Structures are given as C-alpha cells and as structure tokens.
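Researcher: Please generate the 3D structure of the following complex. Treat every line as part of one assembly.
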Amino acid sequence: MFIGYFTERPYQDQRSGYFGATGKPIMDLTVSNEIYDAKLGAELYNRYLDEKMYAEEMGFDGLMLNEHHGTPFCMGGAMNVEASILARMTNRAKIVLLGNILPIWDDPLWLVEQLSMIDMISRGRLVSGWVRGTGRESVAHNSPPPYNWERFQEAHEFVVKAWTTPGPFRWEGKHFQYRHVNPWVRPYQEPHPPIWLPGVVSRDSLMWAAEKRIPYIMLATEMEPTKLAFQLYHDTAAEHGYESGPQNIGYLWKVHVDETEELAEETARKYVQGPSNPFLAGNEGTVNPALVNLPGLTSRTRVLPTQAVATAARGGTGGVAGVLGRPYEQQIEDYTIITGTPDTVIKRIRHVLEYIRPGSIFFWDGDGAMTHDDAMRSLRLMGQEVIPAVKEIAKELELPGPFEVDPATGKDLTKEEAAAPTADD
Amino acid sequence: MTSLSVAWTEETRPVAGVDLHLRRGGSGEPLLILNDEFGHLGSLRYQEELAQNYTVYIPSHPGFGPTPRLDWIMNVRDLAGWYLMALEELGLNSVNAIGLSMGGWLAAEMATMDPGQFKKLALVGAMGVLPPEGFIFDMFLSVPAVCITSCFHDPEGTAEFREICPELAAPEQAQAWEIAREEACRLGWRPYMYYPGMPNLLGRLKDLPTMIVWGREDEFVPLSAGQVYHDSIPGSRLEVLDNCGHMPHVEKAEEFLGLVRQFFA
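Model: Done. Output below.
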C-alpha cells in the first residue's frame, strides 16, 4: 500500500468575500487577481510546504501536488516549483505530481528538463503524473481544446523519448517540432520516473492508461462509479494481455483525523467552508457551463461511469440530479468524507479499501477553511495511528502499491529492492 | 417582398477528398454563401429571397457537419486552400459570393490566394482581422445560445431570431452547434479568429468588386474590423446598417437584400 498526502492549497483569505460556504460564489474566470494579498500568499505557500515536510516526517509515502490556473481554489499554478523545493527539503517520500497538464505545454522539452532536474535533485523520488486539464487550464494558457487529447498523447511520446533516447534527435510531430533534442539533464530513475494518470471523466484516458500499463488514480469520485471505472481498467488490461491489480489503481478522497469526534466533525465541515472549488463537493461554486464543455476538450461520447457525477458537479449538462452541493452529512454517509478519531477513521478506511481495492491511496486534508493547526493535528495522528494501521489492513487485504508490485509486469519489487542498494545510501 | 417557397436540394458528393454536403436552390446565375461559425442555422428568409434570382449554393464546410472533417485542415488558410480546389471541381469559377462572419474570413483568405475565384464578393461582419478597437467576442466562453443572442442588437425584435435560437434547443440542434463550434475552435482558437498577415495581403483584391456589410452595433466582430477590411481593399465599399448586430442578413434582412441585389446586379 502506497499512502500519499494531498491538499489543493487554497488561497484562504477571510476578507476576500469569496471565503466560506456563505460567501460570494466563485464563477470561473470572474475573480480578478486585484484582490490578491501578496503577504498572505507568501504565508500560505510556506505553510503548505511546511505541512508537506511534516507529512514526510509522519510517515507518508508520497507528497502529492496538483496544478490549476487562474483560480483561488488551488495556488499551485506552477506545481513544478513546489516540487523542486520539496526535492531538496525532503529526503524519503516520493514527490507525486498529479499532474503536469501535458496538452497546455507548447514546449514540452522544457517540461522534460524540469522534471529531470526534480528527479535528479530528489535522487529519484519523482512520480510524474499527467493530466489533460480542465477548461480553465486550456483558457488560461490558450491551448486549443479540440487538440487536447492529440497534444497529450504526442507530448507523452515525446517526453518519454527525450528521457530514454540519447540525443540529439529530431522530432517532427503534428503539434510539436524540434530539430535538436538533447537536454543536458537526464532523469535519475531508470529508464525514467514512473508515470501515473489521475482523472475522473475520460474513458479515452483511462483506457490509454490501462493499455500503457500506467497506474490510474481516481480523484474524489464516489465509490460505486469508481469501482465500475476500475473494472474497465482491469478489463482493458486483460484485453492487452496482462493482469492488472491494486498496484495499477489509486483513489484519492477526503480524510481528516482529529483528537475527539467533536473536533473532527467541526474541522471536517471546513472542507466545504473555504473558497469554492468545483472539485470539492458541497462547495463547488458557480461553474461556467461553457468552460466545462469547451469544444472538443473531452469526447462527447466516450465517458466513464464517474463522468455523470463529475460533470454535473462541475456544472455540466446531462448529469445526475442532486449531485451538486452534496451536503456534508451525505458525504459522511457515502464515505467521500471520512473524519473522526483514529479508531473511527481506520474502520471507515478499511471499508473503502475492501470495496475499491486500490494499491495507492491519497488522503485529501487541510483544505477548504482548515487552518495550519487543523492540518498539523491530523497529520500527527495519521502518522501515529492511522498510517501504521492502514498498512496492516492493506497487507491483510493484499493490496500492494506500485512500488511493491510493478504495475507493468506484476513483478514483486520488494525482493529486488532488498537486494539492491537504495537511492538514499 | 415575396416569399415563394424554393425547392432546395441536398446532396452529398465526393469533392476534393471529402464527401461534401451541399444545399442548392433557386435558379439563375450561381451565388455561393459561405456559412459562419455556427454552421447551417436553417432555411432563412434571405436565402429564399436570393434564390428567386440566383442558384444559391450553400456548402457545409468540412468539419462543421454534416460534411466530415479533414484532419489536415488546421486553420482558415488551410480551409481556404481546400475550398479553391473544391470550387474548381464544382465548376464554380468566377462566382458571386457572400461570406458570413467566419465564412467572410474564409472568402477573404481565398481571394488573397486567387482573387479571380470570385466575380463579386460581399463580406458580412467578417472575422479574419484583428479589430483595432474592441475584440472579437469569445464564443468559447459562452454557451451557444448566448453566443447567438450576442449576434443581435435586438434579438426579440428580430422576426427570425427564435427560429435560429429557440428558447430550448432540440437535442439535434444542440449537437449541430457543438460540432460546428468544435471545428471553429480548431480553426480559430489562436490567434483568436484572425490571421495577422491579412491586412497586408488584401491588396490583391484591388480588381475584385468587394462590398463590406456591417451592423453598427455588432458586438461579435466590432465595426473597426470592417474599417480595416475597407481600408485594406482598394476600391471596396463599406455599408453600415444602423440598429443592427452581427447578422444583418437576419436582423435587417430587407436592407441587406437591397444591398446585395444591387451589388450583384
């Protein structure tokens, strides 16, 4: 079992008017950065980095970062900068980027160089995920949405080649062209950092991941459609001649641990009390329907079981009634928020692990209106009680993570690792 | 004005590497209508009226449905190059043409490559140049119904507005809009709906009689873009209609028909 820590790093400004469930809803692309308080921004960036470092200390296997553009709900506009800092400031945990928004890079060679440097400086701790991005990403970096999927695939092929093939070489693609590819930095890991794919919507992406034997991480989706989507992954893997397992699938959801049940509930309610976030059920804000449905961004027909829920939650059409603004209580009931004292939380996590059977999990915590103290209390208790217990449960349920069993070959990596010198030595 | 019903024929035929969907109606000298970014918006009065005197050709551009997409066409200049091949195959040489919005941009590109392709050319609220004042409306940040509404100065006062844009679009209509938007997005996402070199190339239209028609209140493609076309095409005529948005052919059909009839006569 691989256990990661995630927060979306919201821009928490109590005075912004956009803060809290009763504050002004944030409509995509309508909040001017004129209100941005630089001193507060500096505090928050440092706070979130401190929390990541503490998460490593508390025994998390992975520190997960993500990236969004032009929105207060995620301060990681240049996630690779945060990853670079963590590469130097931490020394054990994997730095899990879920992920770089491949299609919006007009110059993916620059991405090749940045990621290789992060892998070098961290001495091989980079997990390099790709995403296709939401509408706001295409708009913010002016990347043509109908070519999103083509650009994603071509950039992936290009990055992998640049990581693995000695240069110089030429690349004459449909969307990217280079006459001299020879980056003077190569990844630390052989043949290259692991590539993972997170998502919620696209059937194309999930099947592509299964075909390429790339682990797929489902982001804050509801349990039943998540299980259905993972079945599609396993079926696709079988069609491509290999047996996928827990090591190929991951699940991220909201988990907060606290000292008492009362404090846990009070704090977990803060998930839905920060700046609105289209991915934070219960406080999605007002979503621009045109932005959710940018022309050609995802296939109109090839979608996943999780799509109806995800698209409706982000203001799209054709969704399931009652998905928007799912109240806190309902999320507690359906396990999409787990909170409580360690004992309570461990039991409920066991249920999720039994039902979905992922090899990687990510606790989404410290978000919304949660303070630094809220985040630190939870991290401490996770480290002291939850992580060790969940590791035991995972052993009992036979849920190996992608560093225990190779997602591509099914090979047991723990034996090999014991024999070989580790990167940190 | 009369409103004789015209028998339109719809055919699909292989032209320049694609199964081209073509609507045709009326009788007389050929007149080519190049559709805008919304694709085919239905049978409109100005088309019926023009078909009284002309054989009107309305092709569906590749990728705008039902004509399939050609993968190699990635911008409006590519599409213009394809159209020159297609019109040659269709025998539509030296043809009178009306280009609407993105179709106006398309016609202008074709004319810069081969001004002899057209006998006379009417550009209506044409995209294709960067407006010196204001910006071209960002159609991808609004849903189709909002975009279409933005094309009118007085939507509710326009007889045909609700035919084009019903309060609740039928699923087939919504699907057709999405298909057209997707291709418009491929062709014009960036630079957004213009080609930077266009004003420098428009001098080639000096011997092509060109009329530029614009709604004074056009908020989709500002009138300043019309002025650039006018200034860049020697001998061109600029006709500005008052109290009119981006679709003079719909919002001011009568005045529009008066202008084009006189121009093509």
